[in-house]
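Final report, section 2: Outcomes. Of the targets proposed, Splicing factor YJU2 is the one most frequently requested by collaborating groups, and we therefore present its record in full.
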Amino acid sequence: MSERKVLNKYYPPDFDPSKIPRMKLAKNRQYTVRLMAPFNMRCVTCGEYIYKGKKFNARKEDVENETYLGIRIYRFYIKCTRCLQEISFKTDPKNTDYEIEAGATRNFMALKLAEEQARKEEEEQREEEANNPMKLLENRTQQSRNEIELLESLEELRDLNRRQQTIDYDQMLQQYDTTETAREREERLARLDEEYIKTVSFGSSSSAAKVVAQEEVVETIDLAKQSLPKHEERRVEPPKAPPATGNRLKMQNLIRRKETPGPEAKKPASTGGLSLLSAYSDSESNSD
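The predicted structure is given below as tokens.
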């Protein structure tokens, strides 16, 4: 397998590399390389958008008479994918970026331009302060004034936070939330009612029956005959209930007894009228 790959070549003993003629190449020769678009661009001829990362077969060459701190600068040539217009850009080692030259315009340059503008303004300010001492003094005064304002605002924020720490937000919400307060009041009243019902005990059924049975029953005997001069009344008293204590006393206070009136005693029929009728009937029989 190693012989097929030809990794090692044979050099004869009398080989002299100086006798081999050298190839004559152009001084600034172009090479074909494979690269990706370094930024988003738009073709000026057809308006085709070329996004960052699109692959091209490009031609590379050195930029003559242009270097940056001894670093060589390269130029690349690509073609538009739609109209085949040539687009060229070169490296920018100063800003670690690429710079468009011809054939297209770079997109999304706002951030880069803003950074460059800020950098230029900062450099101009430094130069002005270095050349004008009064300007430097004014800038320092303005800077100290800004620092004092920032410290005052910071102190105000600290005081505000300190006041807010003493405020109980839950208590404030409960105070102004009337719906929640009413609902809690109803729950509290219901809870109190349940506790009172649990404390009151109604006792056993036998004791209740004894309490209800405390009624007076009057029985009257109607005597139809005149032989009995007066009717006799017998009074039946119920058995005495045990003394009420505790919960039984509460129940007796709650229950009101209703006494049933006894039946009225029937009056004995008068015998005067009957005697008159019997006398009248006897007189009629005699007359006949």
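Strands lie at 31-36, 41-43, 49-50, 55-68, 71-79, 86-92, 97-102, 104-106, 217-220, 233-236.
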